[in-house]
Amino acid sequence: MKRSCFGIGRTLAPNSGAKVAEFGFENPIVVALPRGGAIVGVEVARALNAPIRLLVARKVGHPQSPEYAIGAVCGDDPLVWNPNEKGAIEGRGLAKALEKAREESRQRAKAYGPWATLPDLDERTAIVVDDGLATGSTARAALEHLRLKGAEPLLLAVPVAASQTAAQIRSEGVLVIALEEPIFGFGSVGQHYADFQQVSDREVLDALERRDRELRDAQ
User: Fold this and answer.
1) What pTM, to 2 d.p., does this model score?
2) How far apart are CA 171 and CA 14, in angstroms?
3) pLDDT in tens, 50-101
């Protein structure tokens, strides 16, 4: 799967569209995880003729080793633990790490303005899109946020997913769509792209605004 976020979205899009049609899901909304997931998500939304919004999830680092994620959170939601970390840490260190992630999530969402505001999702099909699935921390937090909002069914569409992580999320009742699911040697998401350059907020907003114009022109 050696392409860029921009190109791979156009490949993932028909697969997602086919699954939505196969199961008869109606009125879907694409909920993308920025930044890379937003670029992929725009292509999925285009294929489904669906609206797109952003949801900012941030990893929560271990108090003694911040680079090691113990889970993730969306805004003021409860912490969604990684499966092997649940309940292993508590106290002031955890509270501080959690608040740091929540504040980062709130600030990032604020930067995206109305694009990070979700409509009523009660019993609505929501498709979470990201640029890849490694540990699944942020994807799980996003899916839990949408559950709390009443969205159902829930789908997760990614170009590439670690096989074990995809299986765990499927066991939680989520339909996972992935172009590739390496069983061994997954490494990082970026290793599966030929061009994994950092996507800027400006590129995200430009892509969303183009999609919004397409929807308006089609009316």
Assistant:
1) 0.88
2) 24
3) 999 999 999 998 888 888 889 999 999 999 998 877 766 667 788 999 999 9
Angle, alpha carbons 48-186-162 (nearest 5°): 45
Taking residues 180-189, report their average pLDDT. Answer: 72
- Tokens (6 digits) for 77: 């939601």
Instruction: Write down the pLDDT at residue 83.
Output: 86
- What's the maximum distance between 2 C-alpha atoms anywhere in the chain? 53
Give me the residue label for tokens 């921009």.
6
CA dist 205 and 211 (Å) reads 10
């069983």: which residue's tokens?
Answer: 183
Domains and CATH numbers, the chain: 5-56+112-218 (3.40.50.2020), 59-110 (no CATH)
The β-bridge partners of 177 are 157
